[in-house]
Structures are given as structure tokens and as C-alpha cells.
Amino acid sequence: MNAVINESLAAIPGQAWNNRFATLGSDFYTELQPTPLPAPCWISRNEALACELGLQEQWFASQESLEVFTGNRILEGSQPLASVYSGHQFGQWAGQLGDGRAILLGELSTALGPQEIQLKGAGATPYSRMGDGRAVLRSSIREYLCSEAMHGLGIPTTRALCVTGSNARVRREEMETAAVVTRTAPSFIRFGHFEHFSYSDQHQQLKTLADYVIDNFYPRCRDTTQAYAALLQAVSERTAHMVAAWQAVGFCHGVMNTDNMSILGLTIDYGPFQFLDAFDPGHICNHSDTQGRYAYNKQPNIAYWNLFCLGQALLPLMDSQEQALAALESYKTVFPDALQARMGAKLGLPDTRTDDKSLIENTFKLLAADKVDYTIFWHRLGAFGTAQGREAVRDLFMDRSGFDAWALSYSERIAQVDKGLRADLMLKNNPRYVLRNHLGEQAIQAAKLNDFSVVNTLLTLLQAPFDEHPGHESLAGFPPDWAASIEISCSS
Ligand code: AMP
Ligand code: MG
């Protein structure tokens, strides 16, 4: 690679930096510059997010911005750094990890409030271990589109501002090219940051980190006498809501290691994720996950397991183990309640009752028995009230009598709900468009041929996934046969 960083500072017009994470001190990170990439080009810019952040349109489209978001030019006021964390990977303590290819530029004051800006794939750091510090175009497009798809679905997530590409070659299973995704979030702190300081007996730093997170993101924890237990409870609750949202929309994360769990309950680190096509509860989306640890139906328990690790990491700050266990208990009620509310909304029920639990369970069973397309089932169900609409749902099932029995109990239940209210709820909770693997693949294949139109079209659709997008109906259709042969692994 022969690109040289441009030493003259760039500036985002009208934006002020306030790098709070950097105030934690050098135990928490290493300051360093991104490594430049040759011949940067735009793959896609997320104009909608730029507008939300209050970035000037003209600057965002400029050559200077392209260089900044590739890591080739440094912004005045930014304080680039890579943070250190540890984690449990696939159930095993993995020791020190850290930002091996992500570089935090700093924290901007934006129209959305303070937002950290991070470049993923911006070069090696002291935490790269054996890695090259790069991200390939394929995985960068997937992360970019999925972040915005999740946001469009109303699911807490880190966001993605843009993707830039380069002709620099990167070795994975085969040679690929490098890309950089610019991610934004109020904070990129993970469970693994806490594990790092706890397991290395750096308890003063552990306390500093916990206080930082509480003061900046969970200030209400100070209202109690046990602020750290309150933090664990608050994180458990946010995580419960996030995973309930994943389950309801049929999202598999794929690598729920504790270093990929956000302390803010945001979906983070998009790798081998997948939105379910056919409903298969045991579906494993990550080709490297040979044991199925992170299968779709295991996600809720894995989230609890990860919270338990966080609880263990926080123990040195608590009076007793009982305090931590009590804080974790909340997950066991918040998750099922949140899932029931989400599934109820998908069924068109404004509020769910105890006996709706069996209707929801039976719906899952029915879908699993015939491996029905998850997104299409829910979307079609919105028109269940008409004979034609109902027939279109019925057509998805081989087991017609099974469907008819279920439809009878569903009809009885929705007879108690106002039609307009039900229709409205279902429209807002059953997306037409999700980022199925084959759609991501189409965007990637086109981008490899320098056609970025598919990425941009998908971005627009996925940012408004509940809307009709005339002319793009085929992108809301069944996956083609070849979709089943797409293999997504940890390699990115
Ligand atoms: P992930 O599975 O992507 O969440 O990554 C796990 C750990 O490996 C993190 O510490 C990453 O920063 C690091 N990592 C993954 N890919 C690379 C790479 N190409 N270069 C350097 N570090 C990497
Ligand atoms: Mg990660």
C-alpha cells in the first residue's frame, strides 16, 4: 500500500468534538492514526443519517470527506484511538481482544446528540493480533446495509454513515479488496470492556469505566444506593428488549460473543448475520458456528449467558453475588414480556393477554412445521381479514388442515380487536423488506463490478421497510433457490 496520510487537517463544517471516551486515559486505549488506503472511492453515502447528524450535504459529498472517512486525512479536533477489551468467544475466555481494525475518531456533538464516529477497517492497531486491520468490501456492504435495515425496523443498533472502497488487496479465503465503514453510536463500549479490567484485576479502572457509563448513559442508576447493580439491571433490560426485537423480526446475529455485546443494548458488529428466510427455529447462520451455539432459537439464552459474564465482571464493584443475581433476574421477565408484546403487535393485537401466549407459540410451531417464509407470512397476514388475503396466507402452508385450525383460533381472537387498529399495528410491525442474504449478495456482486446502484436502492428500501416501494416488489419476494447455498462465515 502506497497511500500517504494528508497531514493538513480537515474539518467537518459546523461540528464540534468532545472526546469523552479519550478522557478515560491510556489504560483504556492506544492513540494512533488510521492507515491510509490507496485510490479511495465512494461505495455509498447514507444521506439520511448525515442529515440526522446535521452534516453539511455539500461537505459530506466532497473529496475531503471521502479522504476523512477512508482514514487518509485527519480531522481537526478528533483524537483517533483503538480501545482495549477482552471477551468470551464461543463460550471460552479469549483474553485480550480490542479494536483490531476499528479506530474511534472521537465524539461529535450532533443534532442526534453526542455520537462517536468510528472507522472499521482503517488499519492495524496494537490489538490486531494476527489480523491485518482491514475489512473487505463484501462484509462492509453487509454491515452498512444491515445497520440501517435494523434502524429502519426500529431495532436498537449502531448506525452506518458511509462505505468507501479502495483497490488495496486483502487476503481472506481468496483475494478481495479493502473497504471502510464509518459507524456511529453514542458509545461503542462492550461487555468485553468490563471483562477486560475485571479479569486483569484492574479494579480501579473497572470502577472508572462503570462510573463513566453510568454518568453518561445511565444517570438514573445514581438514584439508588447500589449504582452498579442498577447498571447491570438496566443493561439486562435493554438487552432483553433488543433480543426480543431480533426474535420477532427473525434476525440471527451469528456471533454473540461478549465482545460483540453493546453496553447500550445496541446491535453491534454485523458479521455472519442473517434474516430468516424459511422459519427454522434451529437455524445457524454462521458457517463457522459448527456447534450451533448461536442458532436463532438460542439467542435469548445466550444473551442471558453474556449478561451473566457482565455480572461476574462487575462483582468487584458490588457488595455480594446475590446483588448481581437479583439484577440479572429482570432479564427473565423483561425478555418474555417484550417478545410477547412484539409478537402480539405482529398478530395485530394492541395488548396481549395471558392466553395469547399459546396463540403465539402455536404460530411459531405452525411456521416451523412447514418451514414457511417468515417475513412473507407476517406481511401477508396483514390482509387475513379478506377472503383473498386469507387464501394467500393459506397458500404458504402444505399442512392446510393445520393452518385452518390455527386460523380459526386466530379469527376468534382478532374478532375482539378493532379492525382499523389491527390493520395499522400489522402494517407497522410486519416489514415488507428485510436484508435477506441473497439481497446483500446481489448488492455485493454488483459493487464488485463498480455498480453501486443496488447498494443504494437497498439502502433506501431498508430505511423504510414497512412502506410500499413501487417497482421494487421483487425485492420483497421469496428468496431464489441459490440463496440456500450462500455460506457466510466469520471471515470478514
Ligand atoms: P469479530 O469476530 O469481528 O467481532 O472480531 C473479534 C476480534 O478480532 C476483535 O478484536 C476484532 O477487532 C479482531 N479482528 C477481526 N478481524 C480483524 C482483522 N482483519 N484485523 C485485525 N483484527 C481483527
Ligand atoms: Mg467484534
Structure report:
The protein is built from 16 helices and 15 strands. The chain is 41% helix and 16% strand. Strand 7 (86-89) and strand 8 form a beta hairpin. The chain folds into 3 domains: 6-188, no CATH class; 192-340, no CATH class; 347-429, no CATH class. Helix 4 packs parallel to helix 16 (453-463), helix 7 runs parallel beside helix 9 and helix 9 packs across helix 14. The protein is globular. The longest helix is centred in the last third of the chain and has 27 residues, at 321-347. 48% of the residues are buried. The protein has helices spanning 47-53, 57-60, 63-68, 137-152, 191-199, 203-217, 227-249, 299-314, 321-347, 356-369, 374-381, 387-394, 400-414, 419-429, 437-448, 453-463; strands at residues 6-10, 16-17, 29-31, 41-45, 73-75, 81-83, 86-89, 92-96, 102-110, 113-120, 135-136, 159-171, 175-185, 251-252, 274-275. Strands 2, 4, 9, 10, 11, 12 and 13 form a 7-stranded antiparallel beta sheet that branches. By secondary structure, it is of the alpha+beta class. Residues 259-260, 269 line the site of magnesium ion. Magnesium ion binds at residues 259-260, 269.
